[in-house]
Amino acid sequence: MIRTVVTPESQTVSIDVPQSYVGKKIEVLLYAVDELIEKEPRRTGNAASFKGIFSEAEAIQFHQYLKQARND
């Protein structure tokens, strides 16, 4: 993979494709870096962060489903 940032001096930008990429599908993206909206990465692996997302009835139903799935 090749990634680079350029500042164009006109409306035309040319690229040289490496020989190893010839005949392959490649993806070319064009966007202004200052227009990017960065999001915080999702936190995973912390069970406490999921506390309260199920109602009590949904939690019981989900627990029963998991119990049955483990028995199968």
Order of helices and strands: H
The rough form would be described as elongated
The total strand number stands at 0
DSSP helical segment count = 1
- Termini gap: 44 Å
Which regions are unreliable across 5 or more consecutive residues at pLDDT < 50?
Answer: none
Helical fraction equals 10-25%
Q: What value does the average pLDDT take?
A: 87
> Which structural category fits the helices and strands?
mainly alpha
Percent in strands: under 5%
Q: Sheet with the most strands?
A: none
Based on CA atoms alone, the radius of gyration comes out at 24 Å
Report on the structure:
The chain has a domain at 48-72. Helix content is 22%, strand content 0%. The chain has one helix spanning 56-71. The protein is elongated and about 60 Å long.
Outline the secondary-structure elements.
Blueprint lengths: L55 H16 L1
Key features?
single chain; 72 residues; mainly alpha; 1 helix
Provide a quick synopsis of the model.
The chain is mainly α.
